[in-house]
């Protein structure tokens, strides 16, 4: 390999690393602006004490959105008040009544007992999250040097006013925002696999998507798996629209726990598939829906991988596995097989030769098992595109914006591990700058 190729590879790797680095978000910018405003105010006003406590308070209260900032501000304000009251009592006992002598063991013991009281009051009022700031205010006013103020009581007052001013500024900064026009006629659909990595969703993605959904964005999820996968991996999202499952075979209302639309395979087609699978010795899972309940029929496993696959999925309350033969009157939505890829490719070719590709779709994809793949057999019309448009017309929306990994198959291509891009793209499309 020549030096030019090595150099190009290094540049490409550095470029990819740079792109994957987190950007400086609005919360960071707002926090820096709040800190600067406080520092500038203290300087312009000629205040000779340190702005440290005001700055710390505004940093602690700054949130990514107004709703979060409001709740945090209320908790901090309550905690500041509780800490200041106990600090005032402690200072009066020390300065005016001389019941507490600085630097003695009784003072240290009383300080610890006061901390107990401070925390207990926050718990008593169900404001446990405010205990931290309560203790900070109390201890900063009782054990920190007070040489910079005119007296102990003034010191307590300054700690209270400085902290409250930092809290108020953080809330005001969060309240200010650029005017945005909400595009409520767009249906946003993201592949579940692009939102999570190893079953975990990025905190920013989760927070921003929930904010957008709560603000009125029409967002839902599509997956090649069952609705149970969405329930497991997207449990913390505020989803309120039906979700598209099994690669377009099902439209599931997660609020009503019912299937709004499902593409059923004909009985004749199902019987022919069962005949081929049994004759060739394949193990398969047969998925049917009865009264909005997903039932999955299976028989004895032929490999350890098939058994492990079953064990990993059966624990979900949204999947109901039945060991036995499917009753003939029940409608089948799709088949699932786990086997060696070569055998599944042979099966696909066999089903095609039997003419079943005229009524069915075949989906072959990798699994987590070595040299093993997953094979789905669905109705020919069971496609994400069909379900996307059905949902669009059902909601009476003007357009659709889809997110996935396959280039050209989606409106926005999102690389694996870059779930943040989904939230950012939806935010940009749903809330462009402008006025309603």
Keywords:
single chain, about 425 residues, alpha/beta, Rossmann fold, Hypothetical Protein, Haloacid Dehalogenase-like Hydrolase, Chain: A, domain 2, 3 domains, six-stranded mixed sheet, four-stranded parallel sheet, about 50% helix, about 15% strand, elongated
Describe the fold and architecture.
The protein is α/β, with parallel strands linked by helices. It has 3 domains: 150 residues, no CATH class; 124 residues, 3-Layer(aba) Sandwich (Rossmann fold), CATH 3.40.50; 113 residues, Hypothetical Protein, Haloacid Dehalogenase-like Hydrolase, Chain: A, domain 2, CATH 3.30.1240.10. 50% of the residues lie in helices and 17% in strands. The chain contains 15 helices and 15 strands. A 6-stranded mixed sheet has the order 10-9-8-11-13-12. It has a 4-stranded parallel sheet with strand order 4-1-14-15, with helices on both faces. A 3-stranded antiparallel sheet has the order 5-6-7, with helices on one face. Helix 2 crosses helix 7. The radius of gyration is 31 Å and the shape is elongated. The two termini are 58 Å apart. The model has no long low-confidence stretch (mean pLDDT 85).
Helix share of residues?
Answer: 40-55%
- How many DSSP-defined strands? 15
Q: Helix segment count?
A: 15
Give the total of domains: 3
Mean pLDDT across residues: 85
For the largest sheet, list the strands in their spatial order. Answer: 10-9-8-11-13-12
Question: What fraction strand?
Answer: 15-25%
What is the H/E string?
Answer: HHHHHHHEHEEHEHEEEHEEHEEHEEHEEH
Name the overall outline.
elongated
Largest sheet: 6 strands, mixed
Give unreliable regions as ranges.
Answer: none
Computed CA radius of gyration, to the nearest angstrom:
31 Å
End-to-end separation: 58 Å
Structural class: alpha/beta
């Amino acid at each position: 390999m020549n030096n030019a190729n090595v150099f190009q590879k290094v540049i490409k790797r550095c470029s990819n690393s740079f792109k994957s680095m987190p950007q400086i978000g609005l919360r960071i910018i707002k926090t820096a602006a709040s800190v600067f405003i406080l520092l500038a105010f203290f300087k312009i006003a000629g205040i000779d004490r340190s702005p440290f406590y005001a700055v710390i308070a505004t940093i602690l209260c700054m949130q990514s959105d107004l709703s979060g900032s409001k709740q945090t501000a209320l908790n901090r304000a309550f905690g500041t008040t509780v800490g200041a009251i106990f600090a005032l009592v402690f200072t009066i006992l020390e300065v005016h009544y001389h019941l507490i002598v600085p630097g003695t063991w009784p003072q240290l013991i009383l300080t610890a007992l006061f901390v107990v009281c401070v925390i207990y009051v926050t718990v008593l009022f169900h404001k446990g999250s405010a205990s931290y700031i309560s203790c900070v205010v109390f201890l900063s006013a009782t054990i920190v040097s007070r040489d910079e103020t005119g007296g102990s009581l003034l010191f307590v007052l300054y700690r209270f006013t400085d902290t409250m001013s930092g809290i108020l500024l953080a809330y005001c900064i969060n309240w200010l925002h650029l005017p945005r026009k909400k595009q409520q006629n767009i249906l946003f659909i993201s592949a579940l696999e692009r939102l999570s990595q190893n079953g975990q969703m990025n905190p920013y993605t989760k927070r921003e998507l929930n904010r957008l959904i709560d603000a009125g964005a029409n967002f839902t999820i599509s997956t090649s798996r069952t609705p149970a996968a969405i329930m497991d991996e997207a449990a913390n999202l505020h989803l309120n629209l039906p979700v598209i499952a099994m690669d377009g075979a099902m439209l599931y209302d997660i609020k009503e726990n019912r299937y709004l639309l499902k593409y059923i395979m004909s009985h004749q087609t199902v019987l022919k598939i069962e005949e081929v699978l049994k004759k060739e010795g394949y193990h398969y899972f047969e998925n049917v829906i009865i009264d909005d309940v997903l039932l999955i029929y299976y028989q004895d496993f032929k490999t350890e991988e098939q058994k492990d696959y079953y064990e990993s999925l059966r624990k979900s309350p949204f999947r109901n596995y039945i060991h036995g033969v499917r009753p003939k009157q029940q409608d089948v939505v799709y088949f699932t097989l786990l086997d060696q890829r070569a055998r599944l490719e042979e099966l696909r070719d066999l089903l095609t030769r039997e003419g079943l590709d005229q009524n069915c779709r075949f989906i072959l994809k990798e699994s987590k098992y070595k040299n093993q793949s997953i094979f789905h057999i669905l109705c020919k019309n069971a496609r994400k595109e069909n379900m996307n448009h059905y949902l669009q017309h059902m909601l009476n929306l003007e357009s659709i914006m889809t997110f996935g990994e396959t280039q050209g198959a989606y409106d926005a291509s999102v690389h694996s591990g870059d779930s943040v891009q989904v939230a950012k793209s939806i935010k940009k499309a749903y809330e462009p700058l402008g006025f309603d």
